[in-house]
Amino acid sequence: MTRLATPLLAALLVAVAPPAGAAAPGPARSALEARSGRLLASVDVAPAFPPELQKQLANGLTNVIALHVALLPDGEERPIAIFGRTIDVLYDVWEETFGVLVKDPQTPLGRRQTFRTYRELRAFLTEARGVDLGPVADLGNGRWVLQTRVEVNPVSKELLERTREFIANPTAAGRGGGPSRSVLGTMASYLLRGADPGADVHLFRSGPFTAGDVERR
Amino acid sequence: MLPLRALLAAALLGGAASAQAPAAQDASPASPAAPEAPRRYVVERVALEGLTRTKPSAVQRHLSVREGQALDEAAVLASRLRLLQLGWFSTVETRVQKGSERGLVVLVFSFTERNTIVVSDLVLGSTGPQPFYGGLGLSDGNFLGQGLALGGAFVYGGPPAGQPLAPSRFAVRGAFFDPDLDAGGLPLVLGLSGVLLRGEELACPDPNCNGFQGRYGDAPRVRYDRLGGELTAGIRPGPFERLLAGFRVERVTSEVQQGAEAAGPLPSIRPGQSLITALAATYDRDTRSDLFLPTDGSRLSVNVTFASPALGGDYEYARLLVQLETDHRLPWGHGLRLQGAAGTVQGEAPFFDRFYAADWAYFTIGPAVGRALELNFSTDSRYDAVLALAGTEYAVPLWSSGGFFHRGYLALGARWTWTAATSRTGRTPASSTPFSADVALRLDTPVGSFNVSTAYALDIFL
Predict the structure, then answer these.
(1) What residues of chain A lie within 8 A of the CB of B16, using their CB?
(2) Closest CA to A94 of B108, B101, B76, B37
(3) What distance in Å separates residue B262's CA from the closest CA in chain A?
(4) Could you tell me the strand order of the sheet in which A200-205 lies?
(5) What is the pLDDT averaged over residues B402-407?
(6) 10 Å Cβ neighbour count for A144?
(7) Which of A11, A61, A164 sits opposite B73 (nearest CB)?
(8) I want to staple A91 with a disulfide (CB 3.0 to 4.6 A). Which of A58, A147, B286, B457 is the partner?
(9) Do B121 and A60 touch (CB under 8 A)?
(10) B266 in contact with chain A, both atoms CB, cutoff 8 A
(11) How far apart are CA B426 and CA B419, in angstroms?
């Protein structure tokens, strides 16, 4: 298992931390194996892809799915290894096929695949296989958990910033910037902003395991 | 929201799994079936679905995709986010459909409109000279479905205590604002506001009117009426800025009512009929991340008013007001707001264009109570020419995904307010202390933002 440099680890800690408003992590079905001295995980993230998501993934525009799998000491929040993958899903309305572009540590430039049906696509999306979490020897005698984060169509703060504009319109109550005493807030437009752009975040957490629980191949 | 692509890029380039992963352990279950990049389509038509109140033209102004152009997904996403941030819609979904022939697509924006009519003001209060007064303000952020802002508010107090036959005190205000006037591509804004007000200021020898022992009907006073409006036009130099110029005309009528004792200092106003004509200029810069609970950005407002007989009026004065707010994110999602304001008035400004200390404090210890729509229901009629304010608020988010009260936070505020009659005099003791504080519960609801404030209640009793 490679130790992450501190700045990178800090950044990834943010990446796996639950966002404000995200639900508590759900249980995750996962399988672990040791192959050629590496710890490989397969994680079932099916709850992140409910049937109603089909409409969105078939909207003819690129949908981005970000997957992070983190290896954490049981009871702690600081991962010691993390695996990241993005999957761009694009339904071609004329070809009527789902094209995906997968980028992860094995293929940082991306690899493409095509699926004829949503069922095939979902089967691909819901099980992350061969997730490499580093040398299995690094597990030592400790107890560990896997935390998986799936984010559908994340919107970056930078993009939100670029689309933001002046938000406070004048109200009837005030003039010349002076305040007016009111039980309610004086800005009517308080509630009008901050609509959710619609990113879905799903968190999964495995039960604790040790090196002895890892299947050797 | 996280910059996930940047994080992922970092993980992919320097992450643990990438450098040492054996090639045989491909995470993909299948080999590539279609290595070619997706085809690019041309937008044959842009369709808007779900608009019942909002005019399509108001939406189209904010789209950065055009018919006949290649489908640009970045522009589609930017358009969608921009539409969401207008505040008119609770959801904006996008999809692509087949066009009339191969290679062409229809780009569909599907909307769920939200309520844009909200309660902007709710006034309830009680003072000795006015045992009960109340008011309401409503505002529509998408008037006529055109993205226009229209608001109105009133406060009514009825006849003052001890004078049942006296005219009722009331104030009515209305405002219209077009934040995005379509004028040949120029980023213009236009506003119009009006006021009708009948009020009175007590003119006792002391601010408490102690000599009248609660018989406020015997107190001397100044009755006055105001009727006027202001036309504002301006430009948006940048996405976060507005530069406005306005012309204000207001007719004022005032009359001194003698009481059982000689009057004290009278508030500044011309007797009989007079006319205010003034030019106003405002620079406003607002980069706050949110209006309910900002945790990033700032707001700067500089307002200059210049009234002169040269403009046809009777008053000659200048008024400058600068307000600054900065917002900061703290650990655990908490927020810190720093506030400051400074103002000065020079010349013969009517009292209602000066600074009333209680307006700027959370509460005051003494007779002064913050005004409602510029109506003063207290016994204290001292208005000042100089203002300085510094304050801070600490915000603790309590929840962010509720039902009717869908967001809420606890606000802990402290403020220092200083006013003086002229620039060379000491502080006006409108309150026995320049410090005030507040513990408030702020609630964001579909019909307005509630501010359940302990300081508001304290102000009535202190």
Answers:
(1) 1-4, 81-83, 133-134
(2) B101
(3) 31
(4) A26-27, A200-205, A144-152, A63-73, A81-92, A97-104, A107-115
(5) 77
(6) 24
(7) A61
(8) A58
(9) no
(10) no
(11) 8
Handedness of CA B390, B396, B401, B406 (dihedral sign): negative
Does the structure show a pLDDT above 60 at B39?
Answer: yes
Contact B286, B240 (CB under 8 A): yes
Distance CA B225, CA B246 (A): 22
Q: B88-130, pLDDT tens digit by residue? A: 888 889 999 999 999 999 999 999 888 788 787 788 888 888 9
Instruction: Give the count of beta carbons closer than 10 Å to the beta carbon of residue B112.
Output: 12
Q: Which of A15, A93, A129 minimises the CB distance to B4?
A: A15
Q: Enter the tokens of residue B61.
A: 């102004």
- If we measure between CA atoms, which residue out of B376, B125, B380 comes closest to residue A182? B125
Q: What is the ipTM of this complex?
A: 0.73
DSSP letters for B244-307 = EEEEEEEEEEEEEEP-SS---PPPS--SEEEEEEEEEEEEEEE--S-SSS--S-EEEEEEEEEE
Q: Which pLDDT band, with edges at 50, 70 and 90, does B194 fall under? A: very high
Written as one string, the DSSP assignment of A110-173 is EEEEEESSHHHHHHHHHEEEEEEEEEGGGGTT--EEEEEEEEES---HHHHHHH--------SS
CB contact under 8 Å between B89 and A151, yes or no, is no
Token readout for B416 is 């220092």
d(CA A181, nearest CA chain B) in Å: 5
Evaluate whether A185 touches B442 at the Cβ level (below 8 Å): yes
**Which pairing describes strands B241-257 and B272-286: parallel, antiparallel, or unpaired?**
antiparallel
Rounded to the nearest angstrom, the minimum Cα separation between B393 and chain A is 15
Residue A129 to residue B29, Cβ atoms within 8 A = yes
Summarised one tens digit per residue, pLDDT across range B294-317 is 888 899 999 999 999 999 999 999
pTM for the structure as a whole: 0.72
